[in-house]
């Protein structure tokens, strides 16, 4: 497939290694990857604060970067940015061109699980992984059945990772409780955010895993800052990095 | 209690200073969430029930006038008196009128968040009527001169030792007594005296059944029944949103109410009242107090599907770590923000949320709580009354993010700063982030920079890009 990479500002600016792993993994899987220029933020920091006027220009800039780009899918390794992009594109531009972009948007896990399924990995990864089920990914993108939901259980990240030889998967206590990042929540509500992050990081560390693995870079950045502050014996990794190592 | 005007963040910051208390509070509520999970998972049809519950409430809200009139007509035909109140003040006046006509000196009341919302207790006390809350948790906080901190377990913020001290002072239990069973026994004896000496009883209403002209009241302690069955005069206050069409629809909601609240299969006492007792009087007061105004906004109106199980409070990671008093309105937690944000003078409560969405999934009637909270923020932004200095800095963020050049140079500068400045210098600048966490390790370049250098053939320019 021909895939356009969507790297939200946080990934582009602060976690390029996640984007590089995503690129490398998609290419190893035989996809052709392109990188549309002029991408910026999805507008989430503004819309999450209620400031739709302030978000408009940013969102449309990002949308424009993908308009008319020839590709089969637009793939993003950041769940909450993807959700925001989808919603904000729709909010600010109701044209067929915008809809065409929206229809091609996929989060990485979703893409590898549902759209172009990866059934096999060829290199073992002998690590214990504690999975970070970030809220927007599970509750808005259906990447896993949330714990509150009593219907059928599914978990796309686990399904992908469990196809890797040697990987041991575990979960923290209160497995899908929010880590407390929440965008500007982390600065507006410093004390509660920090306490949530601390509880989450500790719960991951308590599993004895080597890595906290997740699909949402913002949660991982928050947890990473907490883990290093508290010097907990665990590190964060993006799903793309683990999958890339296994190919 | 006097209203304290401080932002949620400030109140939460104070609550968070005692970390062991936060852990205890968070755990006590999480235990309820776990019980809820077990109870909900024991019903294979749980998700079907939720869908049905949501439909029942939406259907009724969409045809509210018709159902309310049918309810009133049925009540009247059964000898029940019906009153309509447009707001809390009118509600309180009606209640006082009824009570004073009967010369009531002491009123026993069973848990009702609506009377809290209307501030009935202080109003009646000001008129010389003694009001006794008879739910154990409500009685505890009433003795402690506090409002409820949770809608189902109103005294959840108090430890048993604190209740012991309070009861020692107010009810004369032995000093240092903290055994819940013995404390409950003491409270029960005390409350029995109140029931026997009360002139009238008042309850909230969990559901009002239009086809029957009946109100349903759910309690675990039987206190509503103790109250309503003893004196001749009984009053029931309900919001207009409490109406359901018939007993079948009430049954659907009753199957979920207690399970989602505490994990019980059903509330211990679920009583229906529909006629006055011989020689007595039964009054139902139907209150609007802002509800029909809320319904004019389609999304906000969905908050009226709520059946007040408290499940969203128990699951909320922010509520559990900041406590019920941090929200600045009568009802705390996610549903509190949805229905009560306008009461909060600091405008900060809609930001007391990470938008994790757990509440919306836990809710038995599928109130889209996270969407409503998100919407509340937008309404504040449109009214230009944002908290935490957002009106000032958000336009700057907007401009910064909308400009790839600014974003690129700005972030490049930030990366360099992260690399070369000692962290002790950066931390004060990064505010709340650096206070609690390490700053991110800075990469050498952005991904875009990396692509330009290493894989320039990947770059494409879109037609939309100007
Ligand atoms: S909003 Fe839903 S979960 Fe929250 S109290 Fe109401 S019914 Fe219960």
From TrEMBL, chain A:
Any single GO molecular-function term of the entry would be:
oxidoreductase activity
Query: Domain Cysteine-rich, which positions?
Result: 3-83, 135-224
Q: Which InterPro entries match?
A: Cys_rich_dom
A GO cellular component annotation here is: cytosol
Name of this protein: Cysteine-rich domain-containing protein
Naturally occurring in which organism (per UniProt): Shewanella amazonensis (strain ATCC BAA-1098 / SB2B)
UniProtKB/TrEMBL annotation, chain B:
Q: Which UniProt keywords apply?
A: 4Fe-4S, Electron transport, Iron, Iron-sulfur, Metal-binding, Repeat, Transport
Q: Name the domain of life this protein comes from.
A: Bacteria
One GO term in the molecular function aspect is: metal ion binding
Instruction: Please report the stretch or stretches of sequence annotated as the 4Fe-4S ferredoxin-type domain.
Output: 297-318
Q: Name one Pfam family in it.
A: Fer4_8
Its Gene Ontology biological processes?
lactate metabolic process
Put simply, this protein is called Iron-sulfur cluster-binding protein
């Amino acid at each position: 497939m021909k895939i356009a990479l969507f790297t939200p500002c946080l990934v582009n600016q602060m976690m390029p290694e996640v984007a590089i792993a995503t690129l490398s993994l998609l290419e190893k899987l035989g996809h052709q990857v392109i990188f549309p220029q002029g991408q910026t933020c999805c507008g989430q920091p503004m819309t999450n604060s209620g400031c739709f006027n302030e978000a408009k220009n940013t969102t449309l800039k990002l949308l424009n970067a993908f308009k008319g780009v020839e590709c089969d899918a637009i793939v993003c390794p950041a769940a909450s940015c993807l959700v925001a992009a989808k919603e904000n594109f729709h909010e600010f531009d109701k044209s067929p061109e915008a809809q065409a972009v929206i229809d091609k948007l996929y989060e990485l896990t979703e893409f590898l699980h549902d759209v172009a399924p990866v059934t096999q990995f060829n290199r073992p990864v002998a690590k214990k992984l504690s999975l970070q089920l970030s809220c927007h990914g599970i509750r808005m993108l259906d990447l896993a059945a949330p714990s509150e939901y009593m219907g059928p259980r599914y978990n796309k990240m686990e399904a992908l990772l469990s196809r890797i030889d040697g990987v041991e998967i575990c979960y923290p206590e209160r497995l899908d409780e929010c880590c407390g990042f929440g965008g500007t929540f982390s600065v507006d509500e410093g004390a509660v955010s920090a306490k949530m992050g601390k509880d989450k990081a500790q719960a991951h560390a308590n599993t004895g895993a080597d890595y906290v693995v997740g699909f949402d870079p913002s949660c991982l950045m928050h947890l990473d800052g907490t883990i290093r502050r508290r010097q907990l014996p665990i590190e964060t990794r993006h799903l793309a990095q683990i999958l890339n190592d296994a190919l | 209690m006097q209203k304290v005007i401080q932002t949620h963040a400030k109140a939460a910051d104070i609550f968070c200073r005692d970390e062991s208390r936060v852990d205890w509070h968070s755990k006590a509520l999480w235990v309820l969430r776990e019980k809820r999970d077990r109870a909900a998972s024991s019903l294979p049809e749980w998700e079907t029930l939720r869908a049905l519950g949501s439909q029942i409430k939406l259907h009724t809200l969409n045809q509210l006038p018709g159902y309310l009139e049918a309810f009133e007509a049925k009540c009247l035909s059964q000898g029940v008196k019906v009153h309509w109140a447009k707001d809390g003040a009118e509600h309180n006046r009606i209640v006082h009128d009824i009570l004073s006509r009967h010369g009531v000196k002491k009123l026993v009341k069973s848990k009702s968040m609506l009377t809290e919302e209307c501030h009935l207790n202080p109003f009646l006390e000001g008129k010389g009527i003694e009001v006794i809350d008879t739910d154990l948790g409500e009685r505890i906080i009433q003795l402690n001169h506090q409002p409820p901190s949770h809608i189902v377990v109103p005294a959840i913020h108090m430890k048993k030792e604190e209740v012991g001290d309070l009861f020692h002072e107010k009810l004369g239990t032995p000093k240092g007594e903290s055994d819940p069973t013995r404390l409950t026994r003491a409270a029960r004896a005390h409350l029995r005296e109140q029931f026997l000496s009360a002139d009238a009883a008042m309850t909230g209403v969990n559901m009002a059944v239009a086809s029957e002209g009946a109100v349903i009241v759910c309690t675990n302690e039987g206190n509503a029944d103790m109250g309503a069955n003893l004196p001749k005069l009984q009053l029931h206050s309900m919001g207009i949103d409490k109406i359901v069409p018939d007993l079948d629809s009430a049954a659907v909601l009753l199957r979920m109410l207690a399970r989602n609240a505490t994990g019980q299969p059903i509330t211990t006492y679920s009583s229906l009242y529909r006629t006055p007792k011989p020689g007595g009087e039964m009054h139902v007061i139907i209150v609007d107090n802002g509800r029909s105004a809320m319904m004019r906004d389609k999304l906000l109106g969905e908050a009226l599907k709520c059946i007040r199980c408290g499940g969203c409070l128990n699951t909320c990671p922010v509520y559990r770590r900041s406590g019920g008093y941090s929200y600045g309105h009568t009802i705390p937690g996610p549903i509190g923000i949805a229905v009560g944000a306008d009461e909060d003078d600091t405008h900060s409560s809609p930001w007391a949320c990470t938008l994790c969405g757990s509440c919306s999934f836990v809710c038995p009637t599928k109130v889209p709580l996270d969407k409503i909270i998100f919407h509340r923020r937008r309404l504040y932004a449109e009214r230009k009354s944002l908290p935490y200095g957002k009106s000032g800095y958000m336009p700057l963020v907007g401009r910064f993010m909308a400009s790839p050049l600014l974003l690129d140079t700005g972030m490049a500068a930030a990366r360099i700063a992260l690399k070369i400045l000692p962290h002790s210098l950066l931390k004060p600048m990064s505010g709340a982030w650096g206070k609690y966490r390490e700053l991110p390790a800075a990469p050498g370049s952005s991904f875009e920079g990396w692509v330009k250098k290493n894989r320039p053939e990947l770059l494409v320019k879109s037609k939309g890009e100007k």
